[in-house]
């Protein structure tokens, strides 16, 4: 038998880069057992065949090593973390880490199993959230759209940007024959590691190569997900001005007012399931160390009640809120819940603009299935009335007005 180098590191054997036979990795990513030459024994129970570790003894729980022969085969072959030479050798996908020249092999999977792994992500409570909330799953349609949405959150290499995942997921799924690998294995250690084409969804022009999804660029552009301490630094609370006509935002930790924004550089906000609001002042954000801040960063990809951009005047005075978030794609219910939250605090909801999408209107209030909402922070029985109220508010405006 031979073992996956990743799953059995204590007895793993890594092929040297100079010894690796690239011809053995064509087609589906698997390599033949006849590729390369047989090495001398690495240990009493391991040799290399075709630059793969071949184990000749099976370890028992008590540490005893049992020779692999007909007697062991008659009692059945355990499959977890083990690749058996006579049944798996020709089908095991070969993986490669270009940074360390490490090689390893793993059990082949079907496309159906690979897609099932994604669907587990789609249903993960920490990502999907209750009915009526915003999530990176609900914000996208179709398998590839949803998969590209969750990839940023579950990416083991540090939350690379969502947009490029769309192209890579499509290529992983459409590759013929199927690679036999889970998506992230394929992306970073299989044939996906060397893809250099542009993101077909965005169709970036050729004179902007830095905006393409070239793998080197893609790997270097990650989204910094906030930890609890960082998130608390951006939590705000609202209070009325002395005359009650304006609404002031202050950071809870420092009690300092939120700084002003410009029309072309708004702040970013998130409104979570517990009715806590977070404001990220882009003028103060450390782009050099953390890259561009995204909505997914603030709540670490978790669901929310609303998301968008916030505009501020001097002294923490709110100017307007919009609902621009490509990751979460709010609907009119998001405006409704923010509006109700401010009403419940006795704030002047006409003190600033509610900037809606052009297609939103009071009709959306009647079309929304409020009864299906499972948002415990609100009485859903009053939300439809609140929706009609905000969409008829004198400060209800539209994009570009």
**How far apart, in Å, are the first and last alpha carbons?**
69 Å
Name the poorly predicted regions.
1-42, 204-210
Helix-strand makeup class: alpha+beta
Spell out the helices and strands N to C. EEEEEHEHEEHHHHHHHEEEEHHEEHEHHE
Average pLDDT reading: 82
Helix content: 25-40%
Count of distinct strands: 16
Main beta sheet strand tally, sense and closure: 8 strands, mixed
Largest sheet strand order: 10-9-12-11-13-14-15-16
Residues in β-strands, percent: 15-25%
Count of alpha/pi helices:
14
Morphology? elongated
Radius of gyration: 27 Å
Question: What do you see in this structure?
Answer:
The chain has 401 residues and is of the alpha+beta class. It contains 14 helices and 16 strands. The protein has helices at residues 70-74, 85-88, 111-122, 125-128, 142-154, 162-174, 183-189, 215-220, 228-233, 287-290, 295-298, 332-344, 362-367, 380-391, and strands at 2-3, 46-49, 52-55, 57-59, 65-67, 82-83, 94-97, 102-105, 235-240, 247-251, 267-271, 277-280, 306-312, 318-321, 353-356, 396-398. The strands form 5 sheets. It has an 8-stranded mixed β-sheet with strand order 10-9-12-11-13-14-15-16. It has a two-stranded antiparallel sheet with strand order 1-6. Helix 3 (111-122) packs across helix 5. The model is unreliable at 1-42 and 204-210 (pLDDT under 50).
Secondary structure blueprint with pairings:
Layout: E1 2-3, E2 46-49, E3 52-55, E4 57-59, E5 65-67, H1 70-74, E6 82-83, H2 85-88, E7 94-97, E8 102-105, H3 111-122, H4 125-128, H5 142-154, H6 162-174, H7 183-189, H8 215-220, H9 228-233, E9 235-240, E10 247-251, E11 267-271, E12 277-280, H10 287-290, H11 295-298, E13 306-312, E14 318-321, H12 332-344, E15 353-356, H13 362-367, H14 380-391, E16 396-398
Parallel strand pairs: 14-15, 15-16
Antiparallel strand pairs: 1-6, 2-3, 4-5, 7-8, 9-10, 9-12, 11-12, 11-13, 13-14
Helix pairs in contact: 3-5, 5-6, 12-14
